[in-house]
TrEMBL record:
Pfam families linked: MIP
GO CC, one annotated term: membrane
Keyword flag Lipoprotein: no
Location, primary (coarse class): membrane
TM region positions: 20-42, 49-70, 82-102, 114-133, 139-158, 170-191, 211-232
Membrane topology: Multi-pass membrane protein
CDD domains: MIP
GO terms assigned for molecular function: water channel activity
SUPFAM superfamilies (alphabetical): Aquaporin-like
Sorted UniProt keywords: Membrane, Transmembrane, Transmembrane helix, Transport
The protein, known as: Aquaporin TIP4-1
Provenance organism: Senna tora
Amino acid sequence: MAKIALGSTREATQPDCIQALVVEFITTFLFVFAGVGSAMAADKLGADALVGLFAVAVAHALVVATMISAGHISGGHLNPAVTLGLLVGGHITLFRAILYWIDQLLASALASYLLYFLSGGLTTPVHTLASGVGYAQGVIWEIILTFSLLFSVYATMVDPKKGDLSGLGPTLVGFVVGANILAGGAFSAASMNPARSFGPALVTGNWTHHWVHWVGPLTGGGLAAFIYETFFVNSSYLPLHSDEQN
């Protein structure tokens, strides 16, 4: 298991860190703008619930895949849970992770406020638990969905042994995000991303169940990173060759 690197305040003045923060802000802004915008459009058009969910899932899948690729300078995290997962694995320092978290929340807030203005004051959909879904159920939903997301990030983008998957990572991660929204959107809202939930909650002032969309994703992301780093990246157990399996 990699040790968490603390980093230092000097990072904030380094050109590569400044450049990464600018890129992370832009890509997170565009991700939230398209994601929240798709949900607002579905509401405005009066889409059937299933059709609306499918449209939102597809929009998120497409924009996640594109923004991860476009954000290669910063890593295209777009998500505090992803940043935490990479911090747990030692791929980013704690100080830079904090800067990323601030960056992501500010970008989400700006995107959500701008959507509110551009839509003429339409209601911004907020991530809340569905009727009949309790806090514990919601947290577990978000843990599992975000675990799936981070496990995919590690397997397709971070793992040095990913082989032929190189270059396909952003697209595959986008597919996972879309699939998870289809699976959990009707229950926990399938946030998987505290920043994605933060902007709409700030604009509307509706913080109902908001903590669920922090605790679940951060727990799931950190757990996935710990397990993948421990058992797959740094494991002493090597896979058997085909001739050894026979």
